[in-house]
Write the structure tokens for this entry.
Amino acid sequence: MGIKSAMIGTSAVVAGAVVGGTVNMGLIVAGAKLLPPPSGVDVNDVASIDAHIGEYSVAQLLSPFLAHALGTLAGALVAALVAPQARLRVAFAIGALFLAGGIMAVRMLPSAPLWFDALDLVVAYLPMAFLGARLAARLRP
């Protein structure tokens, strides 16, 4: 791989991470407005969220899952569109980056339901990265 390809790949991953992170946070904020957390939860304090995670409804838990999945999808799509010659590689780089964040979140919220952790880690990251690469291939063959 030449320097130009490496620079394009790096730029693709950076652009994908920025777009994916923006989509993720936007959906987290929108989800919290549509489905506010249980009373007494300080959403800026991980310990408060963990202490009250058992009070969250399924819908309130699915909101961050959708943010994680759609943020990863958007980031992988952008990365794959920026670097079509390395579409799968850059998309999976985004998926791996966001998966690392998901693993950190699971570790910070040990009281979260196992079904949520499993759904989030198994579905929201690498499969969405693959889907982003496939969508990019259709948009920019």
